[in-house]
Amino acid sequence: MIIKRFVDEDFVNYRKPSMFIITPTCSFKCDKENGCLMCQNSRLVHEPTHDVETDVLIMRYLENPITKAIVFGGLEPFDTPHDLVEFIQSLRWNYHCDDDIVIYTGYTEEELEDTMVYKIISLFNNIIVKFGRFRLDQMPHYDEVLVTKVDADGEAEVFFPNLDTCIEFKARCVSSCEDMGYNTSFWTYRRVAD
Ligand code: SF4
Q1: Core vs surface per residue 63-79: b (16+ CB within 10 A) or e
Q2: How far apart are the C-alpha atoms of 174 and 189, rounded to whole Å?
Q3: 19: domain range?
Q4: 107 CA distance to ligand 1 centroid (A)?
Q5: Cα–Cα dist 26/63, whole Å
Q6: How far apart are the CA of 117 and the centre of ligand 1, in A?
Q7: Measured from the CB, is residue 103 less than 6 Å from ligand 1?
Q8: Closest ligand 1 atom number to CA of residue 107
């Protein structure tokens, strides 16, 4: 199967320690749909691709006692459907492994539900598909936000919405302290309305 690369042990993208497999391509639907370059994985495009034996990848996963799941992500796993299906079928049928397989996709469920690849993988247990892509006009949804406030002037490149002005959230100060001369406080913002 063609991949960009894999990570033997990933602790970020799923609740279980996972092998993370980065797939090689994407149609860049997020860029096209939003009319600008905003793909968060665009740097992966310039990485070399590798043709690896599916069985070698599976054996490497199975021989690692730490990992308990496999995560596909990076670019767009559903844009290389044959490799995705081959991997899942081989893991389930040849190696009798029912571990969770998580697939991050930029497609919506409606876009995938009539495709052959989606119908095939839906036949297997423990397949978790995380749908959806970034849309500029789509508000983020958070149930609970943990915020650290530091009373200081500073420069920043990234800005987060001011939740103090959002009636959807109820704020609670958990604790505060002085840290290296700065007043620092820790808050939770819990969503109370949509
Ligand atoms: S689906 Fe992922 S890889 Fe494809 S354009 Fe969107 S963010 Fe980039």
Answers
A1: eeeebebbbbbbbbbbb
A2: 10
A3: 2-130
A4: 9
A5: 30
A6: 19
A7: no
A8: 1
State pTM to two decimals: 0.76
- Report the pLDDT averaged over residues 93-115: 96
For residue 135, is it within any domain?
no
State residue 75's pLDDT score. Answer: 93
> Whose Cα sits closest to atom 7 in ligand 1?
39
Pair (154, 93) in one structural domain: no
Show Cβ contacts of residue 178 under 8 Å, excluding neighbours closer than 6 positions: 184
Question: Which of the pair, 95 or 154, is modelled with greater confidence?
Answer: 95
40-95 residue pLDDT tens: 888 898 999 999 999 999 999 999 999 999 999 989 999 999 999 999 999 999 99
Element (H, E) at 88: helix 81-89
Amino acid at 191: R
> What is the reported pLDDT for 147?
93
| 178 within a domain of the structure (yes/no) | yes
Give the phi and the psi of residue 179 in degrees, each rounded to 5: -125, 115
Between CA 192 and CA 122 the distance in angstroms is: 35
